[in-house]
Design brief:
It is a single chain. This protein is α+β, with helices and mostly antiparallel strands. The chain has two domains: 291 residues, Alpha/Beta hydrolase fold, catalytic domain (Rossmann fold, 3-Layer(aba) Sandwich); 186 residues, Sandwich (Jelly Rolls), CATH 2.60.120.260. It contains 14 helices and 26 strands. A ten-stranded mixed β-sheet has the order 1-2-4-3-5-6-9-10-11-12, sandwiched between helices. Helix 11 links the parallel strand 9 and strand 10. Helix 2 crosses helix 3, helix 4 crosses helix 5 and helix 8 crosses helix 9. The protein is elongated, with a radius of gyration of 24 Å.
């Protein structure tokens, strides 16, 4: 008799806003002032920006006629002079606010000489239709939005860019792949492979699906979108969901972007919990045209979020410089700064690199041993068992996007009792203390063999920084599931953890912890089942650290 299917994972607690610091009241007041010229109540800096915009451009709200005749709410910054100029189209993030999220930044592009159109994608805010999650209807809408801008431009439009944050970043890349008029893209906190966003190493990313369903509570989702996300939550038809996701993945269309030499700027966070950094970087590697990626401390949208209300922000500055160079032709030097700019945890130093993967001196292989050490030599034959269905001693984050915003404020999630964590719930190995600063730059990799008592198993691997006081911080992680192996068989897992740029201080130790469950992921284990990690002589278990 076949084993019973694992029960669906319980839904995580209600997701917080993906953009917790977005002040909708201030942004809508700024938009109202752009329209009326009345700046009473605005801070002096915002009032000055309103005056600067109105001196060179006309701001107006309107509707874009999208696919199937659905009307999309939009705003246009149109210059009064007839001279040629570049243009930018900005699809809004996944929220109930819609295009006003871009009010300040769109105004700055307008003052800088661009015609700008910002719009709310279908199914969000006051736009008609149902959210297609960057599907064919959203691509068609983006093309219609560009038509709308071009028809109203007072003079010739020279070159065209699409810029988006989060959901808007995905739409921007996909429109650029399908519309030959688009010359450059800025994708901030977007995705590359939507299939991997929803299922990583055969593990359903249930917290991410839950966040997408709840973070824009007034969104009207298309039935295919609802079904795809529901499949992730309940373990439904994942083949259907992955086919749905493939069409909506920039990775699927990356050759077209390269063929036309579309200039692509990306920005992402190392500890991104909604759209993991690994799948974005794999897409970035495949781009064949001009490209750049800024990688920062934080989580989803955190690095660029302060720029939306107008505060100084490195990501928005670089996105603007990217467009100024590739659309306006400014020789500002950004093309000579290398393809990668990494913010290092926790020094916050900025390190440029000519390519990704970043250059490494070597890869250090540390073997998992029966004594709980990470050692230079293999140690075959031991076993370390963990019990499923008990409390998780370590977790990636308390909720999608939440811990990363604390990281931006210099408060990474601590694990105060890491050195003494419950060994019935986690298998743990630690390296010797580092005599000098250990520079981890790139993608850590894990190979481990384990025996699962039941068919269907899951574990999550965490690479941690263990301090001398016994506390720890997260460096990187990845989940893994096997859904097909017979009961009581050996399973081999070869997985990439999420990429990192991390400085392990002198006296600290690298720690590897393997647990059967994390709240961000579905759990294929049966309650009270066991996973027994081991290291067979022919295929020893080890972790590889990329040494910068």
């Amino acid at each position: 008799m076949p084993p019973a299917a694992p029960a669906p994972s319980p839904a995580p607690s209600p997701a917080p806003s993906l953009y917790p610091d977005l002040d909708a009241t201030a942004l809508t007041a700024f938009a109202a002032a752009l329209e009326s010229g009345e700046c009473t109540g605005l801070p002096p800096a915002r009032a000055a920006e309103v005056e600067a915009v109105r001196a060179v451009a006309v701001f107006s709200r309107g509707k874009v006629t999208g696919a199937d005749g659905d009307l999309l709410e939009a705003a246009l910054w149109r210059h009064t002079g007839p001279g040629p100029r570049p243009a930018v189209v900005m699809p809004a993030p996944w929220s109930d606010l819609g295009w006003p999220a871009y009010t300040v930044q769109a105004s700055r592009f307008a003052v800088g000489g661009y015609d700008v159109l910002a719009y709310s994608p279908r199914g969000l805010a006051a736009s008609e239709g149902h959210a297609d999650f960057a599907g064919p209807l959203d691509v068609a809408d983006g093309r219609h939005a560009l038509d709308h801008l071009l028809e109203r431009a007072p003079g010739p439009v020279t070159r065209i860019g699409f810029l988006g944050v989060s959901y808007g970043a995905g739409i921007a890349q996909l429109v650029a792949a399908h519309d030959a008029r688009v010359d450059a893209v800025a994708a901030l906190s977007g995705w590359g492979d939507l299939g991997e966003v929803l299922r990583e190493n055969s593990t359903r990313r249930t917290a991410a699906a839950h966040a997408l369903l709840t973070a824009a509570p007034r969104a009207r989702l298309s039935r295919p979108t609802e079904r795809a996300l529901a499949n992730v939550l309940a373990g439904g038809d994942l083949h259907e969901t992955l086919a749905w996701a493939e069409q909506r993945s920039p990775f699927t269309h990356v050759k077209e972007l390269g063929r036309r030499q579309v200039a692509v700027f990306c920005a992402h966070a190392w500890h991104e919990t909604l759209f993991p950094a690994g799948q974005v970087l794999r897409t970035f590697q495949e781009l064949g045209g001009p490209k750049r990626i800024d990688l920062s401390i934080g989580d989803h949208c955190g690095p660029e979020l302060t720029g939306l209300p107008g505060l100084p922000n490195r990501i928005w500055t670089d996105a603007r410089r990217w467009f100024d160079h590739h659309l306006a032709g400014e020789p500002n030097g950004i093309d000579a700064e290398g393809e990668v700019l990494s913010e290092v945890m926790w020094s916050r130093a900025l390190e440029p690199s000519p390519t990704w993967p970043v250059p490494t001196r070597h890869t250090r292989r540390l073997h998992l041993t029966g004594t709980g050490e990470l050692a230079d030599r293999p140690d075959p034959g031991w076993a370390a068992g963990v019990l499923c269905g008990v409390g998780t001693p370590v977790a990636v984050a308390e909720a999608v996007a939440r811990a990363g915003h604390a990281e931006l404020a210099g408060r990474p999630s601590p694990y105060p009792a890491a050195a003494t964590m419950d060994r019935t719930a986690a298998a743990v190995w630690t390296a010797a203390p580092a005599p000098d600063t250990t520079r981890l730059r790139g993608t850590p990799r894990l190979r481990v063999t384990y025996r699962a008592a039941n068919s269907g198993s899951t574990f999550v691997a965490y690479l941690l920084d263990l301090a001398p006081d016994g506390s720890a911080r997260l460096i990187s992680h990845a989940p893994f599931s096997d859904l097909d192996a017979p009961p009581d068989s050996l399973v081999s897992a070869d997985i990439d953890l999420q990429p990192t740029a991390y400085d392990l201080p002198p006296g600290h130790r690298a720690m590897l912890a393997l647990t059967p469950h994390d709240p961000l992921y579905a759990d294929a284990n049966l309650p009270r089942a066991t996973l027994s990690f081991t290291s067979p002589e022919p295929t020893p278990s080890y972790v590889e650290l990329p040494m910068g």
